[in-house]
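ok new one. same drill as before - structure tokens go in, u give me an amino acid for every spot. 527 of them this time. try not to just spam alanines like last time pls lmao
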């Protein structure tokens, strides 16, 4: 426990929430096994059977972004407790209806959807909150342990669920899942969660949503991680969807054997949690990511051709390890780029991309398997991963450790600030450059434009004086004075460094000067 991948578990708050989440994740996987089993007895429709997993990931697509904005604005503990309580009620409903034999295919999907909604509302806040419970140095490991949690549960949950289902009934499995939400409620209630203090007026929900989207759109590092995540998860995620078909038809295994194959994925996840941090010391993120793609592609190819349970088991251990390592890199690279103020809502965009790629990829590869064969679908997965790794090689991949918990650094504003609602506000900033610095200034100007846009500028222009080619005027417009105050408060130390670099190019004794102009409407003349 002392070092490496498990270090964050030394911290009691993190450990408590991690254990609660683990219990809940195991319950969810047990529920999935039972729900799929019950669905096969309720209907013969393959579409309704695949809808069981879609009912869980659809809510994330629909709700993660608004839920992320909510997570940045409201009390995080109340948000998580409300979401978990909703899931508890729906899970208990499943158990009850199943026990009295009143479960229909549509009621089953409806309740699974409600549980999915609760999960989607809590997810962005939950995922960004956990790393805050450990010191800076342990944060990348804390983020990686979040994925380990999911995948360990994926290894244990279906196996327990399958055994319990065979020995008792679906109703009991659903009841156990309902009980797992009690563990989470207890864990969250017992954990002190820091309230985020801000002297600023609270953002409106729609404005907060837009700010999250604008932030992601103007952050090339985040967009690169999203593109990589989609390329990886679209193909790699569908292996898990095709695995039951391989287990049943190619390898002739029953539900117990299938549970064992899933356990191999979990063993791989455990190995990755232990050795992943070592790997990061040896290689930079990009080669590690490509290595992970190659391993999963090799596993897919093995599943496509092998009839040996032992060979497939080994391939799945490798795939489980590679899956965890790749997701840890992407997740860490993404979260590390996010400042505090926009954390949950920007992370929500990553969750949507991830879940969307996962759901659509599984359906797409399922369609390929349906129209051709499972073998063909697995070859497509292997090929897709290789193409994806090559195509995304040039994109940046942040290490994530260097900007964690970006802190704001407010800049001076006018002595008598206007009314917050007044606007639009035009800000004109003069840069009187030292001779010969124009090229260096222009090289930094694109990053300056992105910074203003991330902070809420609706338009941005850079002009230089006709008579003095070393005098530049930056002009940008924000919606209101309040918006401009937020823009100042949200400047984090990385952006501060950019402004310092620009200041270093100025003439001696002529600092950056800003002028603030507020829009006025001309009076209407009545004839």
């Amino acid at each position: 426990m002392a070092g490496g991948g498990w270090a964050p578990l030394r911290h009691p708050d993190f450990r408590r929430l991690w254990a609660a989440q683990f219990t809940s994740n195991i319950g969810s996987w047990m529920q999935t096994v039972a729900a799929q089993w019950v669905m096969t007895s309720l209907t013969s429709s393959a579409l309704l059977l695949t809808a069981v997993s879609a009912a869980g990931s659809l809510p994330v697509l629909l709700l993660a972004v608004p839920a992320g904005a909510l997570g940045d604005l409201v009390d995080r503990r109340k948000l998580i407790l409300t979401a978990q309580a909703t899931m508890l009620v729906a899970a208990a409903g499943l158990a009850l209806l199943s026990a009295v034999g009143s479960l229909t295919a549509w009621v089953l999907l409806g309740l699974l959807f409600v549980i999915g909604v609760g999960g989607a509302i809590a997810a962005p806040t939950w995922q960004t909150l956990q790393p805050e419970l450990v010191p800076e140095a342990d944060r990348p490991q804390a983020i990686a342990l979040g994925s380990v949690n999911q995948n360990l549960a994926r290894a244990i949950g279906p196996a327990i669920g399958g055994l319990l289902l065979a020995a008792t009934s679906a109703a009991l499995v659903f009841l156990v899942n309902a009980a797992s939400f009690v563990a989470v409620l207890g864990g969250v209630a017992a954990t002190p969660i820091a309230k985020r203090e801000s002297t600023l007026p609270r953002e409106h929900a729609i404005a907060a949503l837009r700010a999250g989207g604008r932030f992601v759109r103007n952050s090339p590092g985040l967009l690169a991680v999203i593109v990589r995540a989609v390329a990886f998860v679209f193909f790699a995620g569908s292996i898990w969807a095709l695995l039951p078909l391989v287990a049943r038809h190619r390898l002739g295994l029953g539900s117990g054997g299938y549970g064992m194959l899933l356990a191999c994925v979990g063993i791989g996840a455990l190995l990755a949690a232990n050795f992943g941090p070592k790997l990061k010391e040896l290689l930079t993120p990009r080669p590690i990511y490509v290595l992970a793609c190659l391993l999963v592609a090799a596993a897919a190819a093995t599943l496509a051709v092998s009839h040996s349970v032992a060979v497939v088991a080994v391939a799945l251990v490798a795939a489980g390890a590679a899956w965890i390592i790749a997701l840890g890199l992407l997740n860490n690279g993404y979260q590390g780029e996010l400042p505090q103020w926009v954390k949950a809502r920007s992370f929500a965009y990553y969750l949507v991309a991830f879940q969307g790629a996962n759901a659509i990829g599984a359906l797409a590869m399922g369609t390929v398997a349906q129209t051709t064969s499972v073998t063909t679908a697995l070859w497509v997965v292997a090929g897709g991963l290789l193409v994806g790794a090559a195509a995304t090689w040039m994109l940046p991949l942040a290490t994530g450790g260097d900007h964690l918990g970006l802190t704001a650094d407010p800049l001076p504003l006018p002595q008598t600030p206007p009314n917050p609602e007044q606007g639009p506000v035009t800000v004109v900033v003069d840069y009187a450059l030292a001779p010969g610095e124009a090229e260096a200034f222009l090289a930094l100007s694109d990053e300056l434009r992105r910074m203003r846009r991330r902070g809420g500028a609706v338009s941005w222009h850079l002009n230089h004086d006709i008579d003095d080619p070393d005098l530049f005027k930056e002009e940008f417009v924000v919606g209101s004075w309040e918006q401009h105050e937020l823009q100042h408060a949200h400047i984090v130390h990385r952006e501060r460094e950019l402004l310092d670099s620009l200041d270093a190019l100025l003439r001696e004794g002529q600092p950056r000067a800003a002028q603030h102009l507020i829009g006025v409407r001309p009076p209407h003349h009545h004839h």
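The two ends are 83 Å apart (CA to CA). and btw Residues 234 and 360 are 7 Å apart (CA to CA).
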